[in-house]
TrEMBL record:
A Pfam family matched in the record: Complex1_LYR
GO biological process, one term: mitochondrial electron transport, NADH to ubiquinone
Stated role: Accessory subunit of the mitochondrial membrane respiratory chain NADH dehydrogenase (Complex I), that is believed to be not involved in catalysis. Complex I functions in the transfer of electrons from NADH to the respiratory chain. The immediate electron acceptor for the enzyme is believed to be ubiquinone.
Primary site of residence: mitochondrion
Gene Ontology cellular-component annotations: mitochondrial inner membrane
Gene encoding the protein: LOC112283487
Domain of life: Eukaryota
Name of the protein in its database record: NADH dehydrogenase [ubiquinone] 1 beta subcomplex subunit 9
UniProt similarity note: Belongs to the complex I LYR family.
Protein species of origin: Physcomitrium patens (Spreading-leaved earth moss)
Membrane topology of the entry: Peripheral membrane protein
Presence of keyword Phosphoprotein: yes
Subunit structure: Mammalian complex I is composed of 45 different subunits.
């Protein structure tokens, strides 16, 4: 395998690792909404990532990434936590615009 191919594969692995870590963190947050529980679980997960950070065998890294992605999908929360003001959150678009059927009277005095 050429040097450029190895570099491209490593870059892809780094990207997959970042995406996996962020997905796993979001999944942990869905299961443990309270921050004190979340911090403990996030630290455990970080330790698992740190344990394998010095691996250099490309096939081993690919296998671990596949196992991690499969694990995240398997333990995906059925009702994931969504920040209230984000699309799909409970406060998103809570104040929709006034419907066109409603007539607005400007300058009306009693």
């Amino acid at each position: 395998m050429s040097t450029a191919a190895v570099a491209a594969r490593r870059a892809l692995q780094q990207q997959r690792t970042r995406v996996l870590y962020r997905k796993a963190l979001r999944n942990v947050l869905s299961w443990a909404v309270h921050r004190d529980i979340f911090y403990v679980e996030a630290q455990k997960m970080r330790e698992q990532f740190e344990m394998n950070k010095d691996l250099s065998n490309l096939e081993t890294i690919d296998r671990l990434l596949y196992e991690g992605e499969s694990r995240v999908e398997k333990f995906q929360h059925p009702d994931p936590y969504i920040v209230p003001w984000a699309p799909g959150g409970s406060k998103y678009a809570r104040n929709p615009p006034v419907p066109s059927e409603v007539i607005t009277v400007v300058g009306f005095e009693f």
